[in-house]
Amino acid sequence: MIKKIGFAIVCLAFFGSYAQDGTVSPYSYFGIGELRPATTVENQMMGGIGMYADSIHVNLQNPAAYADLGVRFGETFGLTTYTASISYRQLTLKSASAEESSRVTNLDYLALAFTLKENLGVGIGIMPLSSVGYNLESINQQDDAEGTLVTNRYTGSGGLNRVYTSIGWGITDNLKIGVTANFNFGTLESSRIQLVENVQLATFDERASRINGMDLNYALNYTPTFKDKYTLHTSLRVNTQANLTARNTQRIGSVVADDQSPVLGTELEVSEVNLEASGLKETAVKIPTTTTLGLGYGQDAKWFIGAEYSFQDLGSYVNPFLQFDNLLYQNASTIAFGGFWVPDHTSFKYFQRITYRAGLRMEKTGMVVNDTDIDNFGITFGVGLPLARSFSNLNLGFEIGKRGTTDANLIEEGYFKINIGLSLNDQWFRKAKVN
User: Per the structure, how many domains does the chain have?
Assistant: First the structure.
């Protein structure tokens, strides 16, 4: 057990160092960056729904599910589960006149969960909350006699990570509640360089925000059974408003212009902006509350199908230090459908014990860029492969989707994503019995 704990600590340290390099999306330019899926591979492959409480898998979205960890067919096994995932995503970025491809590989989460006693489970872990990674260029012609060209180059990097602690408690066999405390932290960096045709010097504006703060995720699951084998799954989750604090810096100045280089040459006349005078040295970043309702039906360890609806008043999002002229926020919402099927989990035939998952997700991101809604649509599917005759498994998942549009001088992202997740189970805290 000590070796496993040591391995987990090393992985967590590695994750904290590299979790932010997670996107090449131009839409990470806005807000706190591209929001990363706060869910395991198993749930992602069911359209991202999180209502289902599995006895052998960690559920990162739903803290009430920890109450069911290690409990199967009425028997408590006292399992400890540790899980991790990596993903590979290939993107095709398309505008009205050009098309490019890119790819990114990420470590998505590391988590540990275990039962303290019957109907009481806890979990800890780390995952990315958002990622920033873009390199954009816009060229405009000035309204003057020469028709001078003005080039703006935008780059960004960084992102936010999340460390969490969860607890789930079964009030009754059918009613479970839970709460997750999230601590969010990280740095967002952005820069803009402006070059004017036939002008030797270019101007730049560099900004950085060190952000941290907390939010809570409450969950309630009610799962009555029918005919002693079918279960109705109902779920309510409320992720409270994240009240984050940003400590900001800004540098402006001039550099030697070079039309062929995004970095440009020697910096000249650089100055630190006095943000304290304008009240922007330390600012509040408020991410609005998200509420999720779920409804599903199934048979334990056999099959399940469900749907979830999430909504967020993103119009109340606040970040006074980073504002954009062509961006508005409005209410965001997601509708997701998904499920799984296991032919026969007790069979000696391997392919009968494989879990097959599928789903889809339709998302209104709440971002309106150039008066155009930015929507996201994805189809997911995958398998859970048992490891020997144990509760552990290897989960493979795939997602195909599209975000954005080529209308209004915007960019359409087509993406293909592969997830690989390990869910390993052991009985760390089992008491020895002496006859």
Answer: 1
